[in-house]
Write a sequence for this structure.
C-alpha cells in the first residue's frame, strides 16, 4: 500500500481480555517494527522483524506480548490477559532496508484497557 | 543503549518567528530521523539525516555526527507547525530507532 496501515485505530477492552493489533507495511519493505507510546512520552521500541523472523524482541515488556509476521508482510501484535498499564498507542513502522533505513510510521492503534 | 536528549522540552512562538530545536546523542549513529507528531498522533517524517545538511521548504536540518548533535530549524513558523518534534537515532548493531523525549512546539496566531 501507499503507507503503513494499522487496524483497529481504536480498541477498548476490559482487563484480562485478549487483543490483536494488525499492521500492513508499505509494499516492498522488508523490515517491520512495533513501538508503544504512552501519553507525553516518545515511542518505545518493542520488536522488529526482518522478513518473517523476529530479529529483536528485547523491547517486549513481558511474556503476555507476542508478535508474528508469518508471510513476511502483515504483522499482528498479540496481547494476552490485558492490564490497565497496557493502555497506550501502539505504532507500527516499516523500512525498505534494515541497516540505516528510513522508517515510516502508521497512524497507530490506541488501546484502552478498562 | 544510546541516549538521546532533546531541547528545549517546550517552546512557544508567535507566528512568523524562527526556531532551532536540538538533539544530542551519546554515541555514533547510523540513522537519525526527525519526526513531527501532529495533534492526531501521526508521526510524519521530516528528515532522514545521519549526517550533513538538508532543506525542505521552511524546514532544514543539520547533523554533525562527529560532535554528536543534530539541529532542526523552522523558519517563518505557522500555527500548523504546532505539535511534538522527535529526534530518533540508531547506533552500532541496533536496528531500531531510539527516540528522544521530544520538543512540544506551540505556534500562536
Amino acid at each position: 500500500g501507499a503507507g503503513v496501515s494499522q487496524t483497529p485505530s481504536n480498541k477498548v477492552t476490559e482487563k484480562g481480555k485478549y487483543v490483536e493489533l494488525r499492521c500492513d507495511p508499505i509494499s516492498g519493505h522488508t523490515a517491520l517494527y512495533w513501538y508503544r507510546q504512552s501519553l507525553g512520552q516518545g515511542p518505545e521500541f518493542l520488536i522488529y522483524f526482518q522478513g518473517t523472523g523476529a530479529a529483536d524482541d528485547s523491547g517486549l515488556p513481558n511474556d503476555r506480548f507476542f508478535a508474528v509476521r508469518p508471510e513476511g508482510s502483515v504483522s499482528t501484535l498479540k496481547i494476552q490477559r490485558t492490564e490497565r498499564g497496557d493502555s497506550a498507542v501502539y505504532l507500527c513502522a516499516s523500512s525498505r532496508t534494515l541497516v540505516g533505513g528510513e522508517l515510516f510510521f502508521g497512524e497507530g492503534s490506541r488501546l484502552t484497557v478498562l | 543503549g544510546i541516549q538521546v536528549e532533546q531541547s528545549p522540552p517546550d517552546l512557544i512562538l508567535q507566528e512568523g518567528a524562527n526556531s532551532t530545536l536540538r538533539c544530542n546523542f551519546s554515541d555514533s549513529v547510523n540513522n537519525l530521523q526527525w519526526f513531527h507528531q501532529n495533534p492526531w498522533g501521526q508521526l510524519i517524517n521530516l528528515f532522514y539525516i545521519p549526517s550533513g545538511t538538508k532543506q525542505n521548504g521552511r524546514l532544514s536540518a543539520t547533523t554533525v555526527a562527529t560532535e554528536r548533535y543534530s539541529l532542526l530549524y523552522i523558519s517563518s513558523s505557522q500555527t500548523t507547525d504546532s505539535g511534538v518534534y522527535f529526534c530518533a537515532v540508531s547506533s552500532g548493531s541496533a536496528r531500531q530507532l531510539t527516540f528522544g523525549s521530544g520538543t512540544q512546539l506551540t505556534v500562536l496566531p
Observations:
- The mean pLDDT of chain B is 95.
